[in-house]
Amino acid sequence: MSAPTNRRSGTEPTTARSAYGLRRVLALVALVGGVIGAVAFALAARSPGGTAGGEWVASAICVVVALTAVVDLAFLHTRQDRPNRP
Fold first, then answer.
1. Identity of the highest mean pLDDT range in 30-44, 45-59, 67-81
2. Is-contact 59 45, C-beta < 8 A?
3. What residues contact residue 37 under an 8 Å CB cut-off, 6+ apart?
4. Residue 55: how many CB atoms within 10 A of its CB?
5. Nearest-angstrom CA–CA distance, 64 and 58
6. Euclidean distance between CA atoms 52 and 8, whole angstroms
7. 50 confidence band (pLDDT: 50, 70, 90)
8. What is the dihedral of CA 33, 18, 71, 54, to 10 degrees?
9. How far apart are CA 58 and CA 14, in angstroms?
10. Is the full-model pTM beyond 0.90?
11. DSSP state of 11
12. Higher per-residue pLDDT: 64 or 56
């Protein structure tokens, strides 16, 4: 039985493409949607007809989505600075 090697076969190292552009667009959409949703739900919760906690929970979920998008955009920004490293 031969020992496994780490040699690559094929052309994947030279022709591989990553979807950072699409990921950046989706993160920007999530950021904008999260901020708009958080503000909208927070305003709805503060209105006289708002429920006790439903809008606040939805607002918190939107904040988490927006923060996740910010972290992803920061990661993509650091990857843009060093394109040739894995």
1. 30-44
2. yes
3. 58, 59, 62, 65
4. 18
5. 10
6. 58
7. low
8. 30
9. 44
10. no
11. S
12. 64
